[in-house]
Amino acid sequence: MVNNKAVSGGLEWRVRVADGSSSAVLVPESGIFQRIWQGIVGLVLGIIRKVRNFFVKAWDVGVDDPRKVMHCLKVGVALTVVSLFYYMRPLYEGVGGTAMWAVLTVVVIFEYTVGATLCKSLNRATGTFLAGALAVGVHWVASQSGERFEPIIIRSSVFILATSATFSRFIPVVKARFDYGAMIFILTFSLVAISGYRVDNLFDLAQERLSTIVIGGSMCLLISMLICPIWAGQDLHFLVARNMEKLATSLDGCVGEYFKDSEDALEIDEESRKNFQGYKCVLNSKASEEALANFARWEPGHGRFSFRHPWKQYLKIGASLRSCAYCIEALNGCINSEILAPEFIKEHLSGVSMQLTSHSSTVLKELAHITKTMRRTSTLDFAIEDMKNAVQDLHDALKSIPSQLITSQLQVDEEALLQEKKTTDPITQPTSIPLIEVLPTYYCSFING
Amino acid sequence: MVNNKAVSGGLEWRVRVADGSSSAVLVPESGIFQRIWQGIVGLVLGIIRKVRNFFVKAWDVGVDDPRKVMHCLKVGVALTVVSLFYYMRPLYEGVGGTAMWAVLTVVVIFEYTVGATLCKSLNRATGTFLAGALAVGVHWVASQSGERFEPIIIRSSVFILATSATFSRFIPVVKARFDYGAMIFILTFSLVAISGYRVDNLFDLAQERLSTIVIGGSMCLLISMLICPIWAGQDLHFLVARNMEKLATSLDGCVGEYFKDSEDALEIDEESRKNFQGYKCVLNSKASEEALANFARWEPGHGRFSFRHPWKQYLKIGASLRSCAYCIEALNGCINSEILAPEFIKEHLSGVSMQLTSHSSTVLKELAHITKTMRRTSTLDFAIEDMKNAVQDLHDALKSIPSQLITSQLQVDEEALLQEKKTTDPITQPTSIPLIEVLPTYYCSFING
To answer: B156-160, B258-262, B325-329, B401-405: which range is least confident on average?
Structure first.
């Protein structure tokens, strides 16, 4: 029932169906091996594509902020230096073979900014010292109370202290500043207290651990502060200034887009659209601002920032900027809305609104400039005065809307009477008003606040 | 020149000034010791107050979420169990004295949610395994290349791998999921590669470290999953539902507050004000939502959530909810604004606006209920239909504003003519309009999106 013959170098399988009425040619679907091969090639190509994308992304990260590359090199240097404790016999014997802890410390506490590194190293040193002292004390008490009670006392102390220290990590104050210290406290206490059961010279263990941590920590701090230091405070400072600039650009773009002639509306290029979406970064900047402010308070004085620089004020400015960004988000909603204000109101308000926007964004840009240079100029006062005048102009323009409406309504009524046909209502959707009205309120509160 | 006499049981110091014209009484300023004593008492009282506040806060944290207390107990139990490796000789000898790593693993990877614990333990195990294998390989190569090149090869491999692994932590994909794994990779590689210079049985070291990590990790996972598990996925699910409810309450409160009679305005109690500020939590929920979604994807199926539950969708819902929250923030700005809409427009729109708000918040509450119960009901469709009708009603009400304006403007003009005095313009500030207009746009986009 089945016959096969060579066809053009391959095999053709022909099946005659039982009733003999027809026969079907079974074309091998390009061969099992070929399919497997194609699958493998596809897989490999997919992996290559993914790996390439990964490296492209990595390259972008490096090009975007070369300081990150510098940080990685610093980590490498710190590890290489600390590993000298292994390679040089006198150093190795000096720390009693616990050089491992120095390596561990470097890997764990070397963070991107100086503040974060300082925060972690101080937390680690303090946590280790407190826990070590406490564990040695508990161990002494336990060893005095006989062989039977010793493990019970140690184990219950570990349980109680670990439980309460873990709980303390949920309390906001501790979580913000001493989270890592609390973890290290639990770690060291457990290690020292439990090891005490097996190790005789417990005091030496605790002391060696502390000294290697101090060596590793000071190595990190030196490298982090002396070679191209990255200060959290400075980063926060410029982040806030950059956010002001982004808001100014977004504001200009957003209002400009709204009052643009409808014919031009389709011609917005991707570049400018991307530019005026900058306020979205501001919307989500809370977490990074708080982290930076938290680290900045640990940093010593640097550049134009003293030790007790009022970092908390940056958070307040950040909150004000976010309020502005919420406002721009609402304005943006008006642009994308299907409901639009009638043309004559738009025309009536276009000039004053653009004027106000331009003055507001000048104020923001001036604020950004002042923040960056940390020098107050008189230009800001003039800009604010101009902005206030623009607000007044807008109010005047808004006041004159009712008469405009009456004129337009009367026109419509006349047309309706004359032409006796359905008229379109000129003020179906007065949505455009928020666009202009919300601005002065927010900007004034921003300037006054 | 100086005489003293007893005055009412104390001493009075009298100084005669050189010219003899007058004498001044030196009253001891309540005594130096007394002042020091008062200072000490003040300090102690201050410390006691701070400590009491700290414990009050801690108590609140515990009462607010008893699962946190449970988590702390679980950590305590895990540590106690793992410390058995020290107390039982066969166990201690089984892991070759490296029981320390098990304790360390438990302290470091036991996190609040199952997802976070799983993420950390898998990261730790994988990082340790990869780095251990690589380090043993590098060490073998180094040992083959003679005593002179051995430290050079090892040190440069540590430098290169530490630098590149640190860099990989900046790449968003790695940062979100494998940050901890990358750190552990650097840690283990450095430790094993560098120790190799001093330790002979390197393979044993790597293997012991891995096995203790596996013991510690599986202990954490068992306790975390079996005793009162806290699932990141479930938390995310209820967080999103709770945010919907908060938005509904805020919306009701905000619009209700706006349209309240001005006489009642002063009588807002703190409780209701606090209630309708709930949307502020939604504004800042991005970071916690992303963290929870990130951990949830590591979790196995639990409750009504399968392993591949679409956790990313929650982030989209969260983004929509935040858009609504931005909008409520803008509405809230209108309430606090000094510029208010004229009374007659407020009255004209009050009914329809309240209607729309009530329907919108019903929809939100219904959505929250559906999310919580994971059961679709037909009530939602009716609620959405009602909301759409309310939007239409509002549009109709807005359409009729121009004629209202004309009437009111004519009245004003007449009054001005009759009384010949300065009139207040009835439509100085049409700010109330955004309050009602922005709502339907956002809610419709929320429902459709």
So the answer is: B401-405
Is B9 among the domain residues? no
Of A159, A183, A401, the CB nearest to B79: A159
Average pLDDT, integer, range A197-215? 73
Tell me the C-alpha distance between B419 and B448, whole Å: 54
Q: Give a yes or no: residue A443 inside a domain.
A: no
Residue reference for tokens 């302290």: B107
Of the pLDDT bands very low, low, confident and very high (cuts 50, 70, 90), residue A103 is: confident
Mean pLDDT confidence for A226-239: 90
Same domain, A197 and A278: no
Cβ-nearest to A197 among B87, B151, B283: B87
ipTM of the shown complex: 0.77
| Pair A347, A332 in one domain | yes
Chain B CB contacts of A188 under 8 Å are none
Sole residue written with tokens 């530019």: A275
In a domain, B80, yes or no: yes
Nearest-CB residue to B80 (from A159, A173, A197)? A159
Q: Coil, helix or strand for A99?
A: helix
Look-up: residue for tokens 């004003």?
B412
- Both A221 and A236 in one domain: the answer is no
pLDDT of residue B438: 43
- Per the domain annotation, does A61 fall within a domain? no
Would the CB atoms of B438 and A333 count as touching at under 8 Å? yes
For residue A340, the enclosing domain spans 232-412
Same domain (yes/no): B269, B301: yes
Q: CA A51, A55, A56 angle in degrees (round to 5)?
A: 115
Q: Say if residue B407's pLDDT is above 60.
A: yes
pLDDT at residue number B449 = 37
In the chain, the amino acid numbered B394 is L
pTM for the structure as a whole: 0.77
In chain B, which residues have their Cβ closer than 8 Å to the Cβ of A186? Answer: 75, 79, 107
CA distance B118 to chain A (A): 18
Domain count, chain A: 2
The alpha-carbon gap from A304 to the nearest alpha carbon of chain B, in Å, equals 28
